[in-house]
Amino acid sequence: MECFPRRLFSGLLRAALTARRINKAWAVQNTTEKRQAPLFLIVLAVFITLSSLPAAAQSKIGLSLPLSGPVEKLGRQFLAGAKLKLEEHNRQAQQPAELVVADDRCDGDVAKLSADELRQSGAGLITGILCNAVAFELAERLKETAIPLLIAGARAPRLTIDRERRGWHVWRLAPADTEAALTAARVLARQWAATPYAIIDDGTAYGRGLADQFRIAMEEAGLPPQFQDNFRPTQSTQARLVRRLRRAGTAKAFIGASAEDVAMIARNAAELEIPLEIAAGDALSVLPFLPQDQWPPDGLQAVLARHEVAATVPAELAAKLEQAEIDPEPYALAGYQAMEVALHAFRSEPGETAQRLASETYNTALGPVKFDETGANTIPVHTFYEWQNGAFEEVAP
Description:
By secondary structure, the chain is an alpha/beta fold. Helix content is 45%, strand content 16%. It has a 7-stranded mixed sheet with strand order 7-6-8-9-10-13-14. It has a 5-stranded parallel sheet with strand order 2-1-3-4-5, sandwiched between helices.
């Protein structure tokens, strides 16, 4: 966002030249009295010249979000956080920014339409992009435009691995899919080194991916699981799975599944009085927002991004969200942070914006952001937490 736009400078120059011509003409007509043009005529000339200038182009930032479909709720949360930051910016900025929002439904085919919509809108930077299928579609479809894509939700490692080869203009603000699993393995390799453990997943892309990444990391540390299993999600009970774990001789389990299912397994184990230490991934970030009758017993462990835990949200940001009547849910916080980075990086030319994304460190309300040469955020965001008294508390490493 230029401090002194070129068109304004050009307009002032034209106005000055017009005023000078008026002054000379007046002097010629009044040679005997050698009077200069009245001040009001000069001011009028300047006003007319400036008012005839076209309005400065407003900065446009695009958002591609699922605003309908199965994950609409997450898109709405992200949008609320992004709008909050944009409103703060526009109250103080000399050049306000405009938001252009497209609904991608978290669907690759629909993303083709949202990509075209955002390109035609004149957006100079696009963020949001919560789903992998959408991220890949936008990266490929918009690469000829050189519009920077600030990916705030999709986590596929190939977005940055293939970036240079495919000519994509992507910067991934979200952590890679592998970060949570690697953080969990680093901590649990110490805690579970001398005891048998199990790896369980719900068969979904998220659950199986997390479980596989954790298994690989633990095997590389020389600690393969004693037992592996999967289960059908969203059932009324998982007592049968808990009994299978007991028969396998494992009292510790890493689970790749939704917050609802992980909490149910923990409750079933407590009801059956079967000792079971459970750790899981960042799907558990929504646990505090579930009905209390779905909460697990104390002691459940989870590897979460710091911004996904209400207790670690900076007080100033929490107060802003509360005043705006926005729940401090993870995607609302992600929306706020993405808009912070987008507004700081944005310039009128996509190439200048890309250069700033590549070179600068962004100190956001949720912590610093710095991208490497592949477009990946280099600053880890995950750490270990334990569920206690209805909230997650950070565990010392």
